[in-house]
């Protein structure tokens, strides 16, 4: 937990032990940590350099812990300052990079990455740099990277990044396909399946995309596409495939596909009330259901209609005759 301020597991354990007893000599602390006395003393010296421990002035040979609120607070403040300086330096370097370009060129918008290691690294960076959403099309034929990287995916998901993934059905036939899919669904990721996807693709935050290149040489290659008309085209491609794909979910018997069912009676009731001008909360109260249930059903209806706004949903509901059905 304290690795962010420069302490490894051993030093953190030593500090925790010292805090729990208040003061201790090296042999006593070594027994508590199950370490040798030399290793324990080195750990204490490291804590001393960080201002987290000090030798007792009244009782030679004993060490005392610095108050965590004061000592750790100072280290955290210094760490924040260093991060702010690093961010400032990164911003200045980015500005210098942009200023160094003599004139805008296609290379500012499209980057060619060659080699399996380079493609894999760029793929990882795109996921770790995402802050909002990662969209991916995954084929059954790996090109430098096999799919959405599990470690990067877990880290991004832990930061609140949403994942929408469309799998080619052949992916489920791969040895670890179902295992990885089950893990992804367990992280509340949205996963769908189609018989075939047009290309492997990853789009992060709608501002950066990676798409493999089909080349005759043995070396894999990929395009990294920045904000441009090409990126909008790739994002549109993903959304088109996403709308046609069938959702996957975890059931009692493992991973199952959800059929393209239409709205049920409750969905139609919710639609009618919303079109009458009621708020989500009013609809929930009227029908005696939870607010989240109403919002979840509305999201599902938007997915069924292939729309992204409620205004579009209302139009599609009339076009498809949903709100005119007899209940």
Can you give a write-up of this model?
The relative contact order is 0.07. It is built from 12 helices and 12 strands. Strand 2 and strand 3 form a beta hairpin. 49% of the residues lie in helices and 18% in strands. It has a 9-stranded mixed sheet, with helices on both faces. A 3-stranded antiparallel sheet has the order 1-3-2. It has helices at residues 9-21, 26-33, 37-49, 68-100, 116-129, 150-158, 177-186, 229-244, 265-275, 280-287, 291-305, 310-319; strands spanning 23-25, 53-55, 62-65, 110-114, 133-138, 162-168, 190-194, 201-204, 208-213, 221-226, 246-251, 254-257. It folds into 3 domains: 1-100, Orthogonal Bundle (Arc Repressor Mutant, subunit A); 108-257, 2-Layer Sandwich (Endonuclease, Chain A); 265-319, Arc Repressor Mutant, subunit A. The termini are far apart. Helix 5 (116-129) packs parallel to helix 6 and helix 10 (280-287) crosses helix 11 (291-305). By secondary structure, it is α+β, with helices and mostly antiparallel strands.
């Amino acid at each position: 937990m304290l690795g962010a301020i420069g302490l490894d597991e051993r030093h953190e354990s030593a500090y925790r032990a010292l805090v729990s007893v208040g003061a201790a000599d090296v042999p006593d602390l070594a027994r508590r940590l199950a370490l040798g006395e030399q290793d324990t003393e080195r750990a204490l010296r490291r804590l001393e350099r960080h201002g987290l421990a000090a030798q007792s002035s009244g009782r030679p040979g004993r060490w005392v812990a610095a108050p965590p609120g004061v000592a750790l607070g100072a280290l955290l403040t210094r760490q924040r300052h260093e991060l702010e300086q690093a961010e400032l330096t990164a911003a200045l370097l980015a500005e210098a990079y942009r200023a160094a370009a003599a004139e805008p060129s296609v290379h500012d918008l499209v980057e060619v990455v060659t080699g399996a290691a380079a493609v894999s690294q760029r793929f990882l960076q795109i996921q770790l740099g995402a802050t909002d959403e990662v969209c991916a099309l995954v084929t059954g034929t790996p090109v430098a990277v096999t799919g959405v990287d599990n470690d990067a995916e877990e880290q991004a998901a832990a930061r609140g990044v949403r994942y929408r993934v469309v799998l080619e059905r052949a992916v489920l036939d791969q040895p670890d396909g179902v295992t990885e899919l089950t893990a992804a669904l367990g992280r509340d990721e949205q996963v769908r399946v189609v018989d075939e996807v047009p290309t492997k693709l990853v789009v992060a935050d709608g501002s950066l995309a990676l798409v493999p290149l089909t080349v005759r040489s043995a070396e894999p290659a990929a395009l990294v596409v920045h904000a441009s008309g090409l990126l909008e085209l790739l994002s549109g491609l993903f959304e088109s495939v996403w709308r046609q794909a069938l959702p996957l979910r975890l059931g009692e018997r493992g991973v199952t596909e959800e059929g393209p069912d239409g709205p049920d009676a409750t969905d139609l009731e919710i639609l009618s009330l919303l079109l009458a001008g009621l708020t989500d909360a009013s609809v929930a109260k009227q029908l005696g259901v939870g607010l989240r249930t109403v919002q979840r059903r509305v999201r599902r209806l938007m997915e069924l209609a292939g729309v992204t706004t409620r205004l579009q949903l209302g139009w599609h509901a009339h076009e498809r005759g949903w709100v005119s059905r007899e209940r």
